[in-house]
Specification:
The complex is a heterodimer of chains A (64) and B (146). By secondary structure, chain A is α+β, with helices and mostly antiparallel strands. Chain A contains one helix and five strands, in the order E-E-E-E-H-E. In chain A, strand 2 and strand 3 form a beta hairpin. The longest helix of chain A is centred in the last third of the chain and has 10 residues. Chain B has 146 residues and is mainly beta. Chain B has a single domain, classed as Beta Barrel (Elongation Factor Tu (Ef-tu), domain 3). In chain B, the strands form two sheets. A seven-stranded antiparallel beta sheet of chain B has the order 2-1-7-8-9-6-3. The two termini of chain B are 14 Å apart. Classes of the chains: A alpha+beta (64), B mainly beta (146). The interface between A and B is medium-sized, with 16 and 13 residues.
C-alpha cells in the first residue's frame, strides 16, 4: 500500500492568473503547482488562498 | 476577502532605463491606473440601436508625486524621463492594496508622456505636487499575489 501522500506533495490548480510573491513568477489559470511552490507561505496563509480567497483548489478535490 | 482601502497602494518603477524596480510609494500621494477600450458602433437597417465592434485597449497610469530634492528622488527620476531625447519604456508594477497575499498586481511597460517640471505657488499649501502621466506600452499583466 503506498504511503499517504505528504501535504507538500499535494497538487493545486490555479483558478485565476497569479504571481509568486517572492520570485514574481506568473502562473496562468488552469495550471497546476505542488504545495511546495508556495513554500514561502505558512499553512495558515495557504489555507486563506484555498478557502477564503479561492485562488486555487486542490486537484482531485470534489472528484476533479 | 477584505475590503480595499482607498489609502493603500504600492507603485514600483525602474529607477533608470534598464534599471531595477524601485518602490516609490513613499513619494506618491495618489495614483490612478486605467484602461480605455476603443469600441466602434455600427448600425444595421431596421434597428434603432447600435451594434458594437469591440476594440483594443490603451492603458494610462497617473500619479501625483511629492516633489523632493536629490538625484534619487522620484521627482528627479521622472524629470529625467520627461526630458530624455531617446527614451525607452520602463517597467512598472502596481499593487492594490499592498504586496501581500491576495493583493492585485498589474505589471507593464510605459513611457512618460506628461510631467510638470515646476509647480510652485507662493500662496499655496507649501508642498509641491506634480502629476505624472505614463502611456502604457503593450499589455498589462494582471495577477493576484500568492
Amino acid at each position: 500500500m503506498p504511503a499517504k501522500q505528504a501535504d507538500t506533495e499535494k497538487q493545486y490548480r490555479v483558478l485565476v492568473d497569479i504571481s509568486h510573491r517572492v520570485s514574481g513568477e506568473v502562473v496562468k489559470r488552469g495550471e497546476v503547482r505542488p504545495r511546495s511552490w508556495w513554500s514561502h507561505m505558512t499553512d495558515f496563509e495557504f489555507g486563506v488562498l484555498v478557502d477564503d480567497l479561492k485562488l486555487i483548489e486542490e486537484v482531485n478535490h470534489g472528484g476533479n | 476577502m477584505a475590503v480595499i482601502s482607498i489609502t493603500d497602494a504600492v507603485i514600483k518603477m525602474d529607477s533608470t532605463e534598464g534599471g531595477s524596480l524601485t518602490d516609490y510609494s513613499s513619494e506618491i500621494i495618489s495614483g490612478v491606473l486605467e484602461t480605455t477600450r476603443t469600441n466602434t458602433p455600427h448600425y444595421t437597417f431596421g434597428s434603432p440601436a447600435a451594434k458594437v465592434s469591440v476594440g483594443r485597449y490603451t492603458g494610462t497610469l497617473k500619479f501625483v508625486v511629492e516633489a523632493n530634492t536629490g538625484a534619487s528622488s522620484l521627482h528627479c527620476v521622472i524629470s529625467t524621463m520627461a526630458l530624455d531625447g531617446s527614451p525607452t519604456a520602463r517597467s512598472f508594477e502596481v499593487y492594490e492594496p499592498s504586496t501581500a497575499v491576495g493583493s492585485h498586481k498589474y505589471a507593464f511597460e510605459a513611457y512618460s508622456v506628461g510631467y510638470p517640471l515646476l509647480n510652485s505657488d507662493a500662496g499655496g499649501s507649501g508642498v509641491a505636487t506634480h502629476e505624472a502621466t505614463f502611456a502604457i506600452y503593450g499589455e498589462i499583466t494582471y495577477t493576484v499575489v500568492t
